[in-house]
Structure to design on (172 residues):
Protein backbone atom coordinates (compact mmCIF):
# COMPACT_ATOMS: atom_id res chain seq x y z
CA UNK A 1 0.00 0.00 0.00
CA UNK A 2 1.22 3.50 -0.88
CA UNK A 3 0.82 6.27 1.70
CA UNK A 4 0.50 9.87 0.45
CA UNK A 5 1.33 12.14 3.42
CA UNK A 6 0.80 15.39 1.47
CA UNK A 7 -2.28 14.28 -0.47
CA UNK A 8 -4.59 17.01 0.85
CA UNK A 9 -2.41 20.06 0.29
CA UNK A 10 0.77 21.19 -1.38
CA UNK A 11 3.07 22.46 1.37
CA UNK A 12 4.51 25.21 -0.84
CA UNK A 13 0.98 26.62 -1.31
CA UNK A 14 -0.10 26.43 2.34
CA UNK A 15 0.67 29.13 4.91
CA UNK A 16 1.18 27.18 8.15
CA UNK A 17 1.48 30.41 10.18
CA UNK A 18 -2.05 31.46 9.28
CA UNK A 19 -3.49 28.00 8.52
CA UNK A 20 -4.72 28.86 5.05
CA UNK A 21 -3.75 28.78 1.44
CA UNK A 22 -1.52 31.52 0.06
CA UNK A 23 -3.20 33.87 -2.43
CA UNK A 24 -3.14 32.48 -5.96
CA UNK A 25 -0.99 34.23 -8.52
CA UNK A 26 -1.18 34.07 -12.28
CA UNK A 27 2.09 32.85 -13.80
CA UNK A 28 3.89 35.10 -16.27
CA UNK A 29 2.62 34.65 -19.80
CA UNK A 30 -0.80 33.36 -18.72
CA UNK A 31 -3.79 35.63 -19.29
CA UNK A 32 -6.49 35.72 -16.59
CA UNK A 33 -9.89 34.43 -17.72
CA UNK A 34 -13.26 35.42 -16.28
CA UNK A 35 -15.15 32.84 -14.26
CA UNK A 36 -17.64 31.07 -16.53
CA UNK A 37 -20.99 31.21 -14.72
CA UNK A 38 -23.97 29.35 -16.23
CA UNK A 39 -26.99 31.41 -17.33
CA UNK A 40 -29.47 32.68 -14.75
CA UNK A 41 -32.55 30.66 -13.82
CA UNK A 42 -35.59 32.93 -13.92
CA UNK A 43 -37.64 32.74 -10.72
CA UNK A 44 -41.18 31.38 -10.98
CA UNK A 45 -42.39 34.34 -8.93
CA UNK A 46 -41.12 37.21 -6.82
CA UNK A 47 -43.48 38.55 -4.15
CA UNK A 48 -42.03 41.32 -1.97
CA UNK A 49 -39.19 39.60 -0.01
CA UNK A 50 -40.12 36.09 -1.20
CA UNK A 51 -38.64 34.41 -4.29
CA UNK A 52 -39.89 31.14 -5.79
CA UNK A 53 -37.96 28.67 -7.96
CA UNK A 54 -38.58 25.22 -9.42
CA UNK A 55 -35.43 23.14 -9.73
CA UNK A 56 -35.79 20.03 -11.85
CA UNK A 57 -33.18 17.28 -11.90
CA UNK A 58 -33.43 16.02 -15.48
CA UNK A 59 -31.77 13.85 -18.09
CA UNK A 60 -30.04 15.35 -21.09
CA UNK A 61 -27.34 14.93 -23.71
CA UNK A 62 -24.20 17.01 -24.02
CA UNK A 63 -21.43 17.20 -26.59
CA UNK A 64 -18.41 16.76 -24.33
CA UNK A 65 -16.09 14.86 -26.67
CA UNK A 66 -16.01 14.59 -30.44
CA UNK A 67 -18.35 11.94 -31.80
CA UNK A 68 -21.35 10.57 -29.97
CA UNK A 69 -23.11 12.78 -27.41
CA UNK A 70 -22.84 11.86 -23.73
CA UNK A 71 -25.91 11.17 -21.62
CA UNK A 72 -25.86 13.71 -18.79
CA UNK A 73 -28.00 15.02 -15.96
CA UNK A 74 -28.52 18.61 -14.88
CA UNK A 75 -30.73 21.05 -13.03
CA UNK A 76 -33.10 22.78 -15.46
CA UNK A 77 -30.46 22.08 -18.13
CA UNK A 78 -28.91 19.05 -19.84
CA UNK A 79 -25.64 19.41 -17.87
CA UNK A 80 -24.81 21.16 -14.61
CA UNK A 81 -27.44 23.79 -13.88
CA UNK A 82 -28.53 27.36 -14.21
CA UNK A 83 -27.60 30.04 -11.68
CA UNK A 84 -30.04 31.00 -8.94
CA UNK A 85 -29.65 34.52 -7.62
CA UNK A 86 -30.91 35.25 -4.11
CA UNK A 87 -30.33 38.10 -1.67
CA UNK A 88 -29.31 38.15 1.96
CA UNK A 89 -32.50 38.30 4.05
CA UNK A 90 -34.70 36.99 1.25
CA UNK A 91 -37.17 34.14 1.87
CA UNK A 92 -36.52 31.41 -0.75
CA UNK A 93 -39.20 28.87 -1.71
CA UNK A 94 -38.03 25.98 -3.88
CA UNK A 95 -39.96 23.17 -5.50
CA UNK A 96 -37.52 20.27 -5.97
CA UNK A 97 -38.60 18.05 -8.86
CA UNK A 98 -36.90 14.74 -9.69
CA UNK A 99 -37.38 13.74 -13.33
CA UNK A 100 -34.47 11.29 -13.20
CA UNK A 101 -34.90 7.51 -13.29
CA UNK A 102 -33.19 7.22 -9.86
CA UNK A 103 -33.55 8.90 -6.48
CA UNK A 104 -31.50 12.01 -5.92
CA UNK A 105 -31.12 14.80 -3.40
CA UNK A 106 -30.59 18.55 -3.59
CA UNK A 107 -27.74 19.66 -1.28
CA UNK A 108 -27.11 23.38 -0.80
CA UNK A 109 -23.31 23.22 -0.53
CA UNK A 110 -22.04 26.36 1.20
CA UNK A 111 -25.50 27.80 1.91
CA UNK A 112 -26.46 28.33 5.52
CA UNK A 113 -29.79 26.48 5.45
CA UNK A 114 -31.48 24.52 8.22
CA UNK A 115 -30.86 20.78 8.41
CA UNK A 116 -31.39 18.02 8.07
CA UNK A 117 -34.12 17.98 5.39
CA UNK A 118 -33.81 21.43 3.80
CA UNK A 119 -30.03 21.00 3.55
CA UNK A 120 -30.64 18.05 1.22
CA UNK A 121 -28.05 15.47 2.15
CA UNK A 122 -28.54 11.76 1.55
CA UNK A 123 -31.07 11.69 4.40
CA UNK A 124 -33.46 13.83 2.29
CA UNK A 125 -34.01 11.82 -0.90
CA UNK A 126 -36.36 12.88 -3.67
CA UNK A 127 -37.57 9.78 -5.49
CA UNK A 128 -38.15 9.53 -9.26
CA UNK A 129 -41.27 11.48 -10.24
CA UNK A 130 -41.51 13.07 -6.79
CA UNK A 131 -41.63 16.77 -5.91
CA UNK A 132 -40.81 18.35 -2.54
CA UNK A 133 -41.15 21.93 -1.39
CA UNK A 134 -38.56 23.55 0.87
CA UNK A 135 -38.02 27.08 2.08
CA UNK A 136 -35.37 29.00 3.93
CA UNK A 137 -34.25 32.55 4.64
CA UNK A 138 -30.83 33.56 3.28
CA UNK A 139 -28.72 34.38 6.35
CA UNK A 140 -25.24 34.91 4.96
CA UNK A 141 -23.13 37.49 3.15
CA UNK A 142 -22.53 37.52 -0.59
CA UNK A 143 -21.15 34.23 -1.92
CA UNK A 144 -21.07 31.87 -4.86
CA UNK A 145 -22.21 28.47 -3.58
CA UNK A 146 -23.27 25.19 -5.19
CA UNK A 147 -26.33 23.01 -5.42
CA UNK A 148 -25.46 19.37 -6.01
CA UNK A 149 -26.68 15.82 -5.47
CA UNK A 150 -25.89 13.74 -2.39
CA UNK A 151 -27.95 10.57 -2.84
CA UNK A 152 -26.99 7.53 -0.80
CA UNK A 153 -25.64 5.02 -1.43
CA UNK A 154 -24.53 6.34 -4.85
CA UNK A 155 -22.88 9.64 -3.85
CA UNK A 156 -19.44 8.29 -4.71
CA UNK A 157 -20.52 7.30 -8.23
CA UNK A 158 -21.22 10.91 -9.13
CA UNK A 159 -24.36 12.16 -10.71
CA UNK A 160 -23.40 12.78 -14.35
CA UNK A 161 -23.34 16.56 -14.07
CA UNK A 162 -25.71 17.45 -11.23
CA UNK A 163 -24.07 20.67 -10.05
CA UNK A 164 -25.30 24.22 -10.29
CA UNK A 165 -24.25 27.61 -8.87
CA UNK A 166 -26.23 29.66 -6.36
CA UNK A 167 -25.23 33.32 -6.11
CA UNK A 168 -26.03 35.18 -2.89
CA UNK A 169 -26.08 38.91 -3.49
CA UNK A 170 -26.35 41.70 -0.96
CA UNK A 171 -29.25 43.93 -1.86
CA UNK A 172 -28.73 44.56 -5.57
Amino acid sequence: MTVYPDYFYAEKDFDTSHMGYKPLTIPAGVEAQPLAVPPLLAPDKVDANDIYYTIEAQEGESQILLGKKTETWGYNAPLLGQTLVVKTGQRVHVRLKNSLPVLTSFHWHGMEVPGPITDGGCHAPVYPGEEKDIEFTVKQPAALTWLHAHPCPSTVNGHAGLDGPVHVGCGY
